[in-house]
Amino acid sequence: MTLVQAPQTYRSNEPIETLRRGCRGMQPLDARLEPWMVDLLANQPALLREAVARYGSPLNLISTTPFVRNIRELQAVAENRQLPFRVFFAHKANKCPEFIDAALSVHAGVDVASEQECRQALRRGASGEDLTCTAAVKSSSLLELCVENRITIVLDNLDELNTLRHVATRSRCDALAALRVSGFRHREQKLYSRFGIDVEELPDFAAQMLHRDTADRIHLHGLHFHLDGYCAAQRVSAIRELLPLVDQLRGEGHLIQFVDIGGGIPMSYLNEGEQWIAFWAAHQDAMLHRGEPVTYRNHGLGLTRFDDQLLGERNVYPFYQSPTRADWLDKILQTASRGGGTLAEQIRERELELRCEPGRSILDGCGITAARVEFCKRHASGDYLIGLAMNHTQCRTSSDDFLVDPLLIRRAVEGKSDVGQENMEGYLVGSYCMESDLISLRKLSFPRGVAPGDLIVIPNTAGYLMHFMESRSHQFPLAANLLCIDEKGTVMRIGASAAEELIP
Ligand SMILES: *Cc1c(COP(=O)(O)O)cnc(C)c1O
Q: What is the distance between the alpha carbons of residues 150 and 177, in angstroms, rounded to a whole number?
């Protein structure tokens, strides 16, 4: 079976190799780069320099072209299996509203996690059907907004159900609800979550939602889960446990129409798996004092040394993994179900709509972050500390580090950008007054040097890295967000993203 073409990358061709040459990890981790990034960085660096000069550092640049392609890739999987299907973009992964517009343009919806995200999606033209609300904590005013707009509310607990009852009764509107389910059994163990209703308590919970009187306006029409991590087999276990419950709840009078498998669809940031393996081998050697450190002060990235052993788990995203996106989803759907046939067939026979809520993986290839170098200081240790007009919250998730090599765009000197210098090695440090404010913990090498006025570009930051942790400590303004519109080989146009509306 052929799915949508794999993303077009300029694998190992000339402009990309040139771009990578300026800055590499001591153990290289080459980023996957999209055509729009290469066009901007290799062919039109002056445009980027002007944008940073005008809008400040750091600067987030986004493109919605890969976003649409990534959604279509998932849709094609379901189409091939003749499965009713809808993607809901998890908006919390990036605040730029252009992604809402792009999602709606390909019949995807939006998963909103706050009242502000919900209002923003409505302002961009989303209808109630286009939205699903999975906020971890839901205020009455958020519930009111959802009820008024017929937005599906994914309920987490009994108090939320009771608040929703009050809201629906008061506003005399029907409420559409789904239940978030957790605690599935997987390989003899229960999958722990702070979220949702335990799968064993689900029938009792749902029974309380049966219409007791005509004033009861809450309709349970779907089941939902969102698991931590990216394990396909765990999703299989969850779907297997959920399908018989759909039958049971339908038998009890609930009109269950969909099963929503949440997000966590995996992606790869790196071009090559071998580099990923080599990086961890070198890091582990360094941790055991058998090799040179590849991280700042030998930071463990989750590992700790105890005698001559390493304990702990990697506290970083698996920046290279397989399968990803479409192949991962298809692998789940083609798994045999207990009732015979594949999971896809089981879902289809029940006339259920399959839903998912990817954030990170559909933002794959959709953003870069550029920051200006302000100083390069030689530390007494011999390493350089390269100071950026940026802080670590502007490129972070809950991972210890973003293990992808940045790119160096040199300042233009008398029309030339290739200012030759000596090799320099060191670390990118940020503008927060903390010893730990490093932009990346990895030791980097700059074979032809680096100097104030150069730009460091971090590839593929649209999913979470730009916005999830950004803070305004020291009263620094938040980074500006610009939209790149690729005008088919001509000059790229860059304009302010409407995300700027959010900043007072
Ligand atoms: C964060 C979140 C998502 C998106 O997860 P990704 O890992 O970005 O795909 C989807 N659904 C819920 C309920 C979430 O909390």
A: 10
